[in-house]
Backbone:
């Protein structure tokens, strides 16, 4: 379901928007919010609800790992976009799950006309790191067309 208004979206977002994602703002077009669900000091798997305002997306990026690693996105509210480098973009809806293998260049974010949240799960692995790349161009982002039924 599409949510253009923040107040309506907040009622639908079961995990809460959280605080402005200031620490990573340089890697996003638009505003994002972060609500950690686990504490990495107490749990081996870091999970956070990441919320994107309409049109917000993160830069292209790659999750690296020598063994294991990667990321899982569990879509929880709104409409979003996910794209791997060289492939067609996918529209994301609540209930969709995306597994991103280590070494895959990709981005994710909200649809142009809807707030969007997903739970980001950082998969445990050896020598895991994240490489932030260039911003997603408007042309790349706008190539994702949302089909409504």
Residues:
């Amino acid at each position: 379901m599409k949510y253009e208004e923040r107040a309506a979206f907040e009622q639908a977002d079961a995990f809460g928007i959280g605080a402005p994602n200031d620490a990573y703002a340089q890697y996003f077009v638009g505003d994002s919010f972060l609500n950690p669900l686990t504490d990495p000091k107490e749990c081996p798997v870091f999970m956070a609800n990441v919320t994107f305002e309409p049109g917000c997306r993160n830069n292209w990026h790659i999750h690296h790992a020598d063994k294991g690693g990667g990321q899982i996105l569990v879509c929880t509210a709104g409409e979003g976009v996910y794209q791997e480098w060289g492939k067609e973009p996918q529209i994301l809806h609540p209930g969709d799950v995306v597994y991103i293998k280590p070494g895959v260049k990709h981005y994710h974010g909200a649809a142009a006309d809807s707030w969007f949240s997903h739970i980001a799960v950082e998969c445990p692995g050896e020598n895991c790191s994240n490489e932030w790349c260039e911003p997603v161009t408007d042309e790349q982002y706008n190539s994702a067309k949302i089909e409504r039924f």
